[in-house]
Design goal:
The structure is a single chain. The chain is an alpha/beta fold. It has a single domain, classed as Alpha-Beta Complex (Maf protein). The chain contains five helices and seven strands. It has helices spanning about 10-20, 45-60, 95-105, 170-175, 175-190; strands at about 5, 25-30, 65-75, 80, 115-125, 125-140, 155. The longest helix is centred in the first third of the chain and has 16 residues, at about 45-60. The protein binds inosinic acid. Inosinic acid binds near residues 86, 116 and 152.
Length: about 190
């Protein structure tokens, strides 16, 4: 299997994906491939945005590649921020402002169910395949922890005493949405070998 391009500019995602992959498959990032573009995410579903990212990079390079799009889906907010997770509080994609907006909208409601959902889009030999990973959990009343990125300080996965931002990378990876989607991608690639 040739090296796969991971179509993202998010170094946190790269670190998490490399942790899951170990030495099973090698990937290169957009930066490592010398590709400097900000791929748009114009659609209203994670599936369509993931497709947009992988197909943009495939069109540009002709190479096998994959992308992922992730959203935090909060039940009481009817699935928001969902596909709008990155820009929930505005175009500058501030993690801090996004978290503050979620906490403000939720107030002190006891209905705090939420989930992270990741959709990976793989383009292999010109054909697209998608893989989904879900992590169920709850939104905290206030932030806890300094690690991770995005909404990690307000998300506690089901059954855990720790927020994602209180976990080390291995602990987050043991239960995360991204890891679950990556496991499906890895199993698929192993089958193709
Ligand atoms: P996107 O997949 O790059 O569109 O990411 C959407 C947004 O969701 C990011 O900007 C982060 O704020 C958030 N996000 C994605 N993955 C995670 C995660 O694993 N933990 C916390 N927040 C995340």
């Amino acid at each position: 299997m040739d090296t796969l391009i991971f179509a993202t500019n998010n170094q946190h995602k790269v670190d998490e994906v490399r942790l899951v992959l170990g030495n099973q498959f090698s990937i290169i990032t957009l930066q490592e491939a010398g590709i400097d573009i900000d791929i748009p995410e114009p659609h209203d579903s994670l599936e369509a945005n993931a497709s947009e990212k992988s197909s943009s990079i495939h069109t540009l390079t002709g190479k096998n590649c994959f992308s992922e799009d992730t959203g935090l889906e909060i039940s009481i907010l009817n699935g928001a921020p969902g596909v709008k997770s990155a820009r929930f509080a505005g175009e500058d994609r501030s993690f801090k402002a996004n978290i503050e907006k979620v906490l403000q909208l939720m107030g002190n409601t006891s209905q705090r169910d939420a989930r992270f959902r990741t959709v990976i889009s793989l383009i292999l030999d010109g054909q697209e395949f998608q893989f989904e990973g879900i992590c169920e959990g709850e939104i905290l009343l206030e932030q806890r922890g300094e690690k991770g990125f995005g909404y990690d300080p307000i998300f506690v996965p089901a059954g855990s005493p720790l927020s994602f931002a209180e976990m080390n990378p291995e602990q987050k990876s043991a239960c995360s949405h991204r890891k679950k989607a990556m496991d499906k991608l890895i199993a698929f690639l192993q089958n193709k070998q």
